[in-house]
Amino acid sequence: MKTARKKLWPWQLLLAAILIVMAASIYGSVSRIDYEWRWYRIPQYFLYKAEDVIKTPQDGVVEAITESAEKAEITVRTIDGQARVLQVDKGSVRVSEGDDLFGGDTVGYVVTWRLGPLLTGLWTTMWISAAASVLGLFIGLVAGLMKISRNYTVSMLAAIYVEIIRGTPLLVQIFIAYFFIGTVFNLDRNVAGIGALALFAGAYVAEIVRAGIQSIPRGQMEAARSLGMSLPQAMVEIILPQAFKRILPPLSGQFISLIKDSSLVSVIAITDLTKSGREIITSTFATFEIWLVVAAMYLIVTSLLSQFVFYLERRLAISD
């Protein structure tokens, strides 16, 4: 062990030197750019305080104002004789007892924390990617089984689907799904985007599933059939569990890649993380800061998923 560590330290030193040189080069290049960095503006696009205006619904008179530690309750006697209690933040009261009010007049404000556009866009990216991954896994599993089918028509249909999807750009597929198929069937843009991503992922998953199943020795299927199992039963109980362990790394890599590919749905006006970043840049011109933050958010999500996959691989290896 000690000998291995002694042999490793020169390479660790070389890695550190390379990283330092790269960091210095990037810093030197950035220093030459005439650009004013405004990192202090970034936090508000994650979380921000929003002021909700509280207005009186009808004409009336302020009957009483009761204040507590953080809130204030304003009792308004409306023209129909009813007493309405409006709650606002303490210190934001804009009326006094006895004031005459008209419908729509502001009586105060309520300040609440809300998700900024970056976190909202990240949530959209995550749920769209998750929905497309589940649907893509199902499509890929079916298409993969169809490709290894002995029925010529079934296998050729799967092969045509895989070749068409893998042979055309995802961006073009999204445009076709939204502007053509979505228009014909009156689909929501979210449905069109998820459908395009699922079909795209499904084509690659089909090849992964096919390769995983064919990597299992034929003797496994023959042994299962000799025990009286039907073909579907043998596939589900014997072949697929073994194939899953082998295809987990490429399968997870495909779904992690799908998270990054989902940024293309922004072209059909889905407000995902990428589109949220573009909208912020349009209003702030903080181009470099926003794109660096967006890239870091994608990196954090994909890195966490990669670590989770490594954990699953270790657990499956132990169970062998």
Automatic annotation (TrEMBL):
Main location: membrane
Bilayer topology: Multi-pass membrane protein
Annotated localization: Cell inner membrane; Cell membrane
Record bears the keyword Transport: yes
Domain ABC transmembrane type-1: 122-309
InterPro entries per the UniProt record, alphabetical: AA_ABC_transptr_permease_3TM, ArtM/GltK/GlnP/TcyL/YhdX-like, MetI-like, MetI-like_sf
Key words, A-Z: Amino-acid transport, Cell membrane, Membrane, Transmembrane, Transmembrane helix, Transport
Membrane-crossing residue ranges in chain numbering: 126-146, 158-181, 193-213, 290-312
Function comment: Part of the binding-protein-dependent transport system for glutamine; probably responsible for the translocation of the substrate across the membrane.
Family the entry assigns: Belongs to the binding-protein-dependent transport system permease family. HisMQ subfamily.
NCBIfam families on file: HEQRo_perm_3TM (TIGR01726)
UniProt protein name: ABC transporter permease
Native source organism of the sequence: Desulfofustis limnaeus
Taxonomic placement: Bacteria, Pseudomonadati, Thermodesulfobacteriota, Desulfobulbia, Desulfobulbales
